[in-house]
Design a protein that fits this description.
Length: 294
């Protein structure tokens, strides 16, 4: 398997004879309550150098504050602990933490933070210039009429009242997302890979909905509800037959490619256990690329 097909926890540089790096599973940053909610959290460090750190962000946690969000955000939590002198934050060598891009609380996956102002300016400029590459995976209801590969290019505009984006050719800003069908099952579901060099707020979710494949669990954009245990296992004899098999948005930011001086750095986050289980239950796990050995 070539290095640039690595999927799972890891990071590598796309240089000649590059070797994938596997982060130490014990390498994580802790957040006591109430910084990221009522429970303590430890977020794995996917990759880090003197300029930035990439964390495996869970759902229900934002990267930065935004008027649409009520969830806690990592910008505030990281800087709060840095200012308080927490040793594991000081050991990162950061002067500050600043999110390079906004990733809404509903989407887990790779979250990237600069460690000083020069790096923050540089990385945000690279992001805004489309010098990065982002790969999402999402689950949607199967639609036979949808082509297996297409580009969504509807310009997007914030809704005047609702916390969502809407297509608008008159006032919307340019947005591009490439969708590729990764797998589909006889149970009526499809796994899509969505790729973009730059993304706006809610871009992947809005573009998916515009093309008839809203994300499972995404009520804001008309996404279908997750199936119940009874629907997937009609013969099951369990007490939770009417419980939904998944309670979050079925979308994940799996891979980020950073164009940096000297090469491309690739950072990847594994699916959560619940998302991986959902794919198995829906018969979509065949569409997930195999992980490289550690």
């Amino acid at each position: 398997m070539p290095p640039d097909s690595l999927v799972g926890p890891g990071v590598f540089c796309r240089f000649p004879a590059a070797v994938p790096e596997t982060p130490n599973k014990k390498n994580a940053l802790g957040f006591p309550p109430p910084l990221l909610g009522p429970q303590p959290l430890r977020l794995p460090v996917l990759a880090s150098n003197e300029d930035w750190v990439a964390l495996d962000k869970p759902a229900a946690v934002g990267t930065r504050a935004h008027p649409w969000d009520e969830s806690p955000d990592l910008d505030a939590a990281l800087n709060s602990q840095l200012e308080a002198g927490k040793p594991e934050l000081l050991r990162t060598g950061a002067q500050l933490f600043g999110s390079v891009y906004y990733l809404e609380p509903e989407i887990p996956g790779v979250a990237l933070f600069a460690k000083h102002r020069d790096a923050l300016t540089d990385l945000r400029n690279r992001f805004g210039s489309g010098e990065c590459r982002f790969t999402f995976y999402l689950v949607a209801a199967r639609r036979a009429e949808i082509p297996s590969k297409f580009q969504a290019d509807a310009p997007l505009l914030p809704h005047r009242v609702k916390a969502k984006m809407i297509p608008s050719t008159a006032k919307g800003k340019k947005s591009f997302t490439q969708f590729t069908r990764a797998a589909e099952s006889d149970l009526g579901w499809t796994l899509w890979r969505a790729e973009a060099d730059f993304f706006r707020h809610h871009q992947v979710r809005a573009h998916a909905a515009t093309h008839g494949i809203p994300v499972l669990g995404d009520g804001e954009y008309g996404g279908p509800a997750a199936p119940t245990v009874r629907q997937l296992q009609p013969r099951a004899r369990r007490s939770d037959l009417d419980a939904a098999v998944f309670s979050e948005l079925a979308i994940h930011l799996s891979r980020v490619e950073l164009s940096l001086a000297g090469g491309v750095r690739v950072i990847e986050a594994p699916f959560s256990k619940s998302f991986a289980l959902l794919l198995r239950r829906l018969g979509l796990d065949s569409g997930v690329p195999a992980r490289s050995p550690a």
